[in-house]
Amino acid sequence: MKYILQRPFLQKCLLLLLGVFIFLYLFDPIETEDVWWHLSTGKWIVEHWQLPHVDIFSFGDVRAPWSCHNEWLGSSILYLVFKIHGLLGLKFFRSLYFVFVTGILFFNLYKRLPFLYVIIFTLLVALGVANRNYLKPDMFNVLFIQFFLINLFNYEDKGERKYLWFLPVVMCIWFNVHLGSLIYGMPLVSIFFLSAAIRYFIAGKGDAVQKAIAFRQARDLALTGAACLFSFLLNPYGVEGFLYPFKVFLFPDYIGFFKFAHSIQEMQPPWYIFHSFGYIYYFVLFALALTVILFNKKNLTIILLLAFSTFAFLYVGRNSAFYTIVCAYVFVFGIRRIKFDGIRQRLPYVKIIECLLCLGVVLFLMDQIAGICLQKEYINGQTINKYRLLDDPSTETLIRTLIDNKITGPVFNADELGGEMIWMGYPELRPFRDGRNNSYERSNNALVTMFHPKENWATMESRYHFKIVVLAPFKYMDEHFLQYLNTQPSWQLIAVNGLYAVYVKRGAFNLPKELDGFEASARARKIAVDDLQNLQRLKSLELASVLQQRYFYPMASNIDHYLDYITLFDIGCKGAAVEELVNALKVCNLGEFRRQADIILKYYSNPWNNLGLSNDGKGNYKEALEDYKKAIELNPRFPDTYFNRGVLYAKLKAIDLALRDFTQVITLNPYYAQAYSNRGSILAARGNFKQALLDYTQAVMLDSKSAEYYLNRGNMYNKLGRFTEALADYKQVTILNPNDAVAYDDMAVTYYQLRDYNMAWAALHQLEELSGNYDPKRISSIKKALTERK
Q: For the purposes of burial, counting CB atoms within 10 Å of the CB of 119, is it exposed (0-12), middle (13-18) or buried (19 or more)?
């Protein structure tokens, strides 16, 4: 009777499951990455039937020489796929491509191992390769690396030159698709040549046959390598295209690549693999390759290959696919001399173990397939299966918002957004950074500016005429820069879309009310008791079991409310952020959302403090004071409690106690702008104008977008007879809030005191236009005083 794992039907089912898993695993929405500028480049090439020689997506008016010489064919292939069936076609192309390249490995291993182990090994390789599944010419490297390894191994094993004939031709194609030909292709040929050369020199005198074989292989591989190198000249850019990659790597100042590379995540060592069990397949592949080497100690080639690929991967994380494929083929071709069946037959209960292993593989694949099919995202009030999404809707919406509202021009942007801006909006939108080689120097300048904004931003803004900033504050550098931008009154926040915040130069664009009022609304929203109570209530709800969550009641794992929460919180709009977190928890009460709720509640939601706010709002002042006292006993370093109690003391006319609490707030948090303002109000009421002025000035420094703080400081300047400075503050109030009638009232009075009656009349006219509910008697009294002077 045939062993169950050898039955063709079961093997076909296993293979089908594996293929479906790989296809779905890579059927992701199109990422916000380099794919967009590659599509733009491919579109230009296809439409013009020529290759660019100057920058076709130039940021400035001067067009620099084109720098992406070695990716024109890869970009064109991607665009042609897009032209056939849009973004959906690209998704299918990526999935089918990776099914194909893992299928090549499968069929090379098929006759060397039992079927079950081939399935498991192919699965490990698919997971390793999938980490480089980005839709850009880089993805084609996996196919070319396999072609070279298969032919080079076959040549070394069989000595037939036919395996080398096509390598220069394929290398020529590879060079025009991606630079991987130089980074991976040439080193592979060099390693096989080096192995043959070493074998030639260490061969003993009595081993003339092996010495002759090694010499012939070294000679053939040297000639093949030279032919491959010569094939680089066969590109549309000729000598310029041939020399370009060498200039990039040999001359650090050529395009500034090495200055910028340290800030690119994929160019960093992959330390993440040592901190997560999810990357165990890299270690398993290394262990399997190393085991094969132990059985082939005299095979210098596989030792050199494993050493080089491991070093390349640990040096730069983007080499993960190269490392994975090399480990795979070291195993594939190294296992030829291992009598696997003999080892397997000596193991006790091997068939039972293999049946259980097969069951585990089947369950794993079915679980993953079900998880992918059930995975959902929540976007614009709708829950949608992730596999149905074509791209990231938040970035598309953001860019569409800019274009539709004619917010155009040079953009100081997050690097990963540049390509999509080119695709959707060039030349109306001109991103400063876009991931292309010729933007590396600008990217380096952007990083320096974001790290030292006070010293560099004014120069950058003036030089490049930036009126739009789009950054991702979840990244440290972006957050650091946006914190600085928040202090600049000339810039305003107009939108938050997912992980990105949009700022524009104030007054530079004719904004609709929704965008123009976005910042004021977001910053005015404070963390309310109801929000904290909702977080506590949602977090305390009983959860379904893991099985129910995964299969029967799957919740959205990616929610636009949560992404908005992250961005709003990072740019200081914490009240609006917590509101978004509450909305996210209403959609999905799981995982990271609950952990964030815990953090918010731990920091902001001292229960007695919340109860005090509630009683204060209801007029139960005695109970509120008792609540605040208990809150301080529970957490004596929570500044909000002292602030809330200080506000209540001021309301109850207990001025000394209020002053003490506001001072304590400032001691605990020297950046608490409202505490300075409230303390300044108390000092001003007591006639201590100079000290009040210092507090108001500190409040303005901490929050230069608050019209209230400028108004209060202007009043102090007025009290001290410093009318010119008072007027400067009143004018700033009218810039921040053009509808502030009190500011025009104070301006009119101040001009009157300076005997500048014309300006006083101008301020009064503005006041009359905004009068609304403003005291008409007050307007009449100012008009009467000015009329008498006239």
A: buried
Instruction: For the beta carbon of residue 214, count every other beta carbon within 10 angstroms.
Output: 20
Residue pair 161/220 in contact (Cβ under 8 Å)? The answer is: yes
- Per residue in 662-704, pLDDT (tens digit) is 999 999 888 889 999 999 999 999 989 999 999 999 999 988 8
CA distances (Å), origin 427, targets 47, 167, 238, 409, 437: 17, 41, 29, 8, 19
Question: What six digits make up the tokens of 137?
Answer: 């010419």
Q: How many angstroms separate the CA atoms of 241 and 55, rounded?
A: 15
Contact at 8 Å (CB) between 623 and 615? yes
- Asked whether the beta carbons of 260 and 248 are under 8 A apart, the reply is no
Write out the DSSP string of 624-643.
HHHHHHHHHHH-TT-HHHHH
- 560-570 and 393-404 helices, crossing angle to 10°: 70
CA distances from 613 to 202, 621, 635 (A): 84, 10, 16
The secondary element (H helix, E strand) that includes residue 572 is none
| Beta-strand relationship, 409-413 and 556-559 | unpaired
How far apart are alpha carbons 124 and 736 in whole angstroms?
Answer: 58
Query: Do the Cβ atoms of 26 and 98 come closer than 8 Å?
Result: yes
In one letter, which amino acid is 404? D
What's the count of helices (H) and strands (E) in the chain, helices before strands?
40, 8
Q: In the predicted model, is pLDDT for residue 773 greater than 80?
A: no
Q: 458: Cβ–Cβ under 8 A, 6 or more apart, which residues?
A: none
Which helix (H) or strand (E) element contains residue 3?
A: none
pLDDT of residue 25: 92
- Give me the mean pLDDT over the 527-547 stretch: 70
Helix (H) or strand (E) holding 714: helix 707-719
- Can you name the residues that pair with 126 across neighbouring β-strands? none
Lateral strand order in the sheet of 556-559: 382-385, 376-379, 556-559
pLDDT digits (tens, 9 = 90+) for 212-270: 888 999 999 999 999 999 999 999 988 888 888 888 777 766 666 666 566 667 778 88
> Whole-model pTM?
0.78
Token pair 């991976």 is found at 184
In residues, how long is the chain? 790
Which of 435, 671, 472, 705 minimizes the C-alpha distance to 566? Answer: 472
Query: pLDDT digit string (tens) for 25-80?
Result: 999 888 887 899 999 999 999 999 999 988 888 887 767 778 777 889 999 999 99
Strand partners, 54: 65
* H or E stretch at 233: none
Cα distances (angstroms) measured from residue 128 to each of 266, 358, 659: 15, 21, 62
Q: What are the DSSP calls for 176-225, one per residue?
A: HH-THIIIIIHHHHHHHHHHHHHHHHHS-TT-HHHHHHHHHHHHHHHHHH
Range scoring the smallest mean pLDDT among 324-338, 371-385, 539-553: 539-553
Q: Which residues pair with 523 in a beta bridge?
A: none
**Sign of dihedral through CA atoms 684, 686, 687, 689?**
negative
- N- to C-terminal Cα distance for the chain? 117
Q: Where are the alpha helices (DSSP H) in 30-71?
A: 35-48
At which residue do the structure tokens 């909006």 appear?
425
Please report how many Cα atoms fall inside a 13 Å half-sphere around the Cα of residue 149, on the Cβ side.
28
The answer for residues whose C-beta is within 8 angstroms of residue 302's C-beta and 6 or more apart is 289, 292, 293, 296, 330, 333, 334
Question: Could you please report the per-residue DSSP string of 582-622?
Answer: HHHHHH--SHHHHHHHHHHHHHH--HHHHHHHHHHHHT-HH
Phi then psi for residue 298, to 5 deg, are: -90, -5
Nearest CA to 642 out of 614, 609, 685, 617 is that of: 609
d(CA 329, CA 153): 9
